[in-house]
Sequence to fold (137 residues):
Amino acid sequence: MGLMASSLRRTLVGAFNRVASIKVSKRFDAIAAQIMLRVIGVYQVLLSPLLGQQCLFSPTCSNRSAALIREHGWSTGMPIARAQLRRCCGNFRVSLNADDKIELRCSDGTVFTEEELSPAFLQRYGLFVRSVRMDRS
Fold:
């Protein structure tokens, strides 16, 4: 990822985290959720293609966030979406499990199986993790 794309991604994640911390009264929960769904839609159409496939997960964090906000509204959905985004942008460890499948363990202890990881992530880390495993055998 280029320097400009990396900087844009950090800016967007920071903005999302700040917005996600806003408390909204129950009266405005549905309106706030609809606004955020539109913002996520704009991100998916205009900005995500510029950044390229960066998300570790499948479905992507923006798709998961939209689904969470749609299902739970602003007050409940945004904190969960924020935690999901932290997992994608935070520290993680990649390893092979007992079935020789790749798994990702996030700094918060959440474990994602190979089926939950994006094709771009698997392409980037899969061969490396498997080659390290072969070298140790």
